[in-house]
């Protein structure tokens, strides 16, 4: 896990949002 892609961060944000709801 050296290169962090922006898409991965976006997916994480979406997952977190769905979990909160």
Automatic annotation (TrEMBL):
Gene name of the record: PDGFRA
Source organism per UniProt: Homo sapiens
Name the record gives this protein: Platelet-derived growth factor receptor alpha
Keywords: Receptor
């Amino acid at each position: 896990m050296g290169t962090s892609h922006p898409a991965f961060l976006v997916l994480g944000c979406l997952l977190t949002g769905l979990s909160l709801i």
